[in-house]
Specification:
It contains nine helices and eight strands. It is of the alpha+beta class. The protein has two domains: 50 residues, no CATH class; 130 residues, no CATH class. A three-stranded antiparallel beta sheet has the order 1-3-2, sandwiched between helices. A three-stranded mixed beta sheet has the order 4-5-6.
């Protein structure tokens, strides 16, 4: 398989985005990066993050871009979209988050300033609490609601709307909600 094909496969799994480390792993020497940028084949998005110029721009490019930003020294993304951002991704309420919410492991450290539009939450998530999407991960609807209820910053009507829409869409189940004491106070309002 050619270097170009390998890089395309990596970028394709991340909606056209890739890191410098991933490009090098596909056999593209760092000394060729400027040539790729000048030719218009690549677009530099951030320090160490690029996009294939001919790849269609996704609806929500920021989800992949900031996931790649969250990578550790080994190049593995650490961030999982959560809280209000996850509600928006799952389309479970009319919430319009002012910041993008991302959960990172408790040991997460970045040696650059955290962007002002990101709000980081620190927790070690279990695999069962995450869904893998193309180029990013998001907390499951159940974990999202548990995080939001625990944080206590979202209006009650939006929480109720998210629960109702989750049940209607089949991504939340009344049986599971009944078993969790955090949902007890909402039991009469959405009649599970």
């Amino acid at each position: 398989m050619s270097k170009r094909s390998k890089l395309f496969d990596v970028a394709d799994s991340q909606q056209g985005y890739f890191t410098s480390k991933q490009a090098e792993g596909c056999g593209v020497p760092r000394s060729h990066f400027n040539r790729k940028l000048r030719s218009g084949e690549w677009v530099k998005e951030q320090r160490g993050i690029y996009r294939l110029a001919y790849y269609p721009i996704p609806d929500r490019p920021e989800l992949v871009l900031w996931t790649l930003w969250s990578r550790n020294r080994q190049g593995i993304p650490q961030g999982v979209w959560s809280h209000e951002t996850a509600l928006d991704i799952h389309d479970l309420s009319d919430v319009m988050p002012a910041k993008m919410h991302m959960t990172v492991p408790t040991h997460f450290r970045k040696h650059v300033e955290i962007p002002k539009h990101l709000r980081l939450h620190f927790a070690n998530l279990a695999k069962k609490d995450m869904e893998i999407r193309q180029g990013y991960c998001v907390t499951t609807p159940m974990r999202t609601l548990l995080d939001i209820i625990e944080e206590g910053t979202l209006a009650e009507d939006l929480i109720i709307q998210a629960i109702r829409e989750g049940i209607q869409k089949g991504v939340l189940f009344a049986h599971d909600l009944r078993q969790n004491p955090k949902f007890k106070k909402y039991e009469h309002e959405y009649k599970i």
